[in-house]
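ok posting inputs for the alpha-D-glucopyranuronic acid job
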Amino acid sequence: MSEVAINYDESLAGDHPLPSALLRPTGGRVSSAVEWYNRRRPEILADFERIMYGKIPPRPETVRPERLSEVTDALGGKATRREIRLHMEGPCGVHFLDILWYLPNHVNKPVGAIAGINFQGNAACTDEDGIRPTVNFKSEAPQQHRWQIPMLIDAGFSVATCCRNDLFPDRADGRAESIYKMFHPASELGAANRDLTAISAWAFGCSRLLDLLETEPRIDARRIWVHGHSRLGKTALWAAANDSRFAGAVSNDSGCCGAALDRRDFGETIAKITETFPWWFPAALDAYAETPAALPFDQHMLIGLIAPRPVLVASATEDLWADPRGEFLSARAAGEIYRLFGSDGISGCEFPAPETPVFGDGVGYYLRTGKHDVTATDWKFVLEFIRRTMTV
Ligand code: GCU
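and the output
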């Protein structure tokens, strides 16, 4: 394996100009939201699909939710907890997905919701006992701190999650056991078929969580957000870019091929990520490993694909691998797209000090002190941002 050098010196990060999201490849400049939506946005979405993330499979022909359990006095009576098994069937086969879902008991009107994929299995997201172990994951290191379910319930939000490995086991040969087996014969599910990516499989999972949430009368379908950390933060942005039912997206420490700019050489790079995690991306991305400045997009355009819906980008001070400044710069640059919709994003802002969020119209950013993780402090900022952007 070649040695990919990693830079942490800001003065060597490079100063490549960003491509403008508004310039059409065929010439001309987009100047209205309608032109953006009808002409430019589909071009950018297609480029991201082809080069960086692959295509998210459609909703399968059959999706049947089975309620495996319901506890109406979960979390000491604060919440209703459900485990739902989605039985899905596509043209080439079947797959099932287990979802852990909490709803607040104390709110008498439809609530907002957070949907997100988890790393370590559903049982690892809560302190409560009796959650079914995730089928495709053995070690269940506790990650309750990443979900803060009691805090979200107290704030009046519902939360639904499922495990990444139940969608696409997170390894080079995971494709064979992934959701793609519903859509492709086994002969197309080998490690070499990189067009069927893990990130699009996980994003597919976000949309299935949304399908479930939006049918529940206790939930306000206009206020369902997608949230993700790290590789699942990349996923959350891609899911929201493709599924306009999401009210907004939160990318926590999503880094390279997430919120962070591709053209900066700081922390993880496309050369490194495609070498380590080839199953996350189409093979087309490898061609840009040494030449990220040749990409027809940068990550501010991924955020812009979600506009005018709000996007919150979160970084952590010690998470240099994810390039906090690169995440901020792309969140800020997305302002050129939000402006078409009459909001400025965070265009006038400078890289902020830790714990000092810059929350604009449509785009928000903050830097948390600490490591690559999701903490109660993160959720405090997330809830603040969601509340301020809520228009319904
Ligand atoms: C690795 C990877 C990152 C990713 C992270 C995670 O560090 O290099 O790109 O975001 O794992 O998902 O935790």
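notes: The longest strand covers residues 62-74. The chain has one domain: 10-389.
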